[in-house]
Amino acid sequence: MRPVVATGIGFVTCLGREKSAVADALRDLRHGMVRYPLFADNERIPVNVAAPLPGFDTTSTDPEDWSYPEGIRFRLEQLKGLSPNALYAHFALRDAAADAGLSLEELSDERTGLYTASSGSAAMTHHHLARMKKVGPMRCSPMGIVASIAGTLNFNLAAAYGIRGSTCGMVSACASSGHALGMACDEIRLGRQDRMLVVGAEDFTEETLVPFSTMRVLSPSPDPDTASRPFDRNRDGFVGTGGAVAVVLEAAEVAEKRNAEGYARFAGWGQASDGYHVAASHPDGIGLARAMKLALDVAGWWPTEVDYINAHATSTPTGDVSECRALHKIFTEKEAYPEISSTKALTGHALSLSSIMEAAFCLLGMKEGFTPGSAHISELDKEAEGLAILHKSKPAAPRNVLTNSSGFGGTNVVLAFSSL
């Protein structure tokens, strides 16, 4: 199978959009969470803290009222077909393509495909359906469906960038963008495509984030500095965020031919399910452990060869325990434990976006020479004892990296990257 490399990344995150800003935040353990007035000042919402996106305001259901950075101009009919996450995705993909040094002609080459990950736009779905019931379907926007359902990213991006290769959207909750990356890698390895554009994006809206409070998994903390604290004994839930991240994957020989400077080699991936519960992970992390084992097998690594793991750890009481138990199952050589952190301490949980966002953080650290730490731990959970939890960022790049993701239904995806 052909080797695959990552050659471009683009960010729209609570830590910023510029690679240098994101890298600095990861090095310094500087989070992007705030007391968010739209939640905290609403007595019906039991949530105070969120991680908004600097430079973007998409709270309105009318895209003409949105504010966003300069650099992309949308025609009115194009804007009417966007959801907030599709707007973010445009910026992330444009920046990733520029980072990889790709032209518009290369993006629309028939050997270039597009895989995306999103849960759709709950805000736009609610808006358009409510209007339909109020005034009837013939007085509604004809672009309401396009702007609402889970495929909105690939609809909008494929049309805007003239994508003619393989195009598909993945929906597997918080493992979605991990599936998109893994399956995109396989498309290249099997020779079906030479290049894949992979984009994950989520709305940053009340309709997307606040419903998780009914499951008692959002942190009620009023303090942005400690609301997200994976692996801490006193964690009480995750903090919501949104945004978009794009990664360009290419066959190694294609990247070499055009002298593209890569970030890392995509060494392999694994996926497995718990078969346990519709929403909760298996208490002993059996599916995640199996996914890690499969990723190691494909990469050809022994567990002792892994330097760093970016954990899924969301800061929920049960989820972090499940992952710790999975890690203990796979990594048993105490003198060679990989260093582990959860960057969700800095960003909060980005749902279907989280896997590709954290993979991009790993790629950035591997190229820029650092390993991100796990912030806000004051008292380590007993289930994490014995694991090499990295409390501070380390000024050295890892060579072999795993990044974990888990989603509803017990789906688990683990991605493996190695230095070039």
Broad structural category: alpha/beta
Distance between the termini: 17 Å
Number of beta strands: 14
CATH class: Alpha Beta
Radius of gyration: 20 Å
CATH architecture: 3-Layer(aba) Sandwich
List keywords for this structure.
420 residues; alpha/beta; Peroxisomal Thiolase, Chain A, domain 1; 11-stranded mixed sheet; 14 helices; globular
Protein model, in words:
With 420 residues, the protein is α/β, with parallel strands linked by helices. The protein has helices at residues 19-28, 37-40, 76-79, 84-100, 104-107, 122-135, 152-161, 176-189, 206-209, 252-257, 286-299, 317-330, 344-347, 354-368; strands at 4-12, 34-35, 49-51, 112-117, 167-170, 195-202, 240-241, 243-251, 264-273, 308-310, 339-341, 388-389, 400-407, 411-418. It has one domain: Thiolase/Chalcone synthase (Peroxisomal Thiolase, Chain A, domain 1, 3-Layer(aba) Sandwich). It has 14 helices and 14 strands. Strands 5-4-6-8-1-9-14-13-10-11-12 form an eleven-stranded mixed beta sheet, with helices on both faces. The longest helix has 17 residues, at 84-100. The model has no long low-confidence stretch (mean pLDDT 96).
Q: What's the quick description here?
A:
With 420 residues, the chain is of the alpha/beta class.
Strand and helix map with partners:
Layout: E1 4-12, H1 19-28, E2 34-35, H2 37-40, E3 49-51, H3 76-79, H4 84-100, H5 104-107, E4 112-117, H6 122-135, H7 152-161, E5 167-170, H8 176-189, E6 195-202, H9 206-209, E7 240-241, E8 243-251, H10 252-257, E9 264-273, H11 286-299, E10 308-310, H12 317-330, E11 339-341, H13 344-347, H14 354-368, E12 388-389, E13 400-407, E14 411-418
Parallel strand pairs: 3-7, 4-5, 4-6, 10-11, 10-13, 11-12
Antiparallel strand pairs: 1-8, 1-9, 2-3, 6-8, 9-14, 13-14
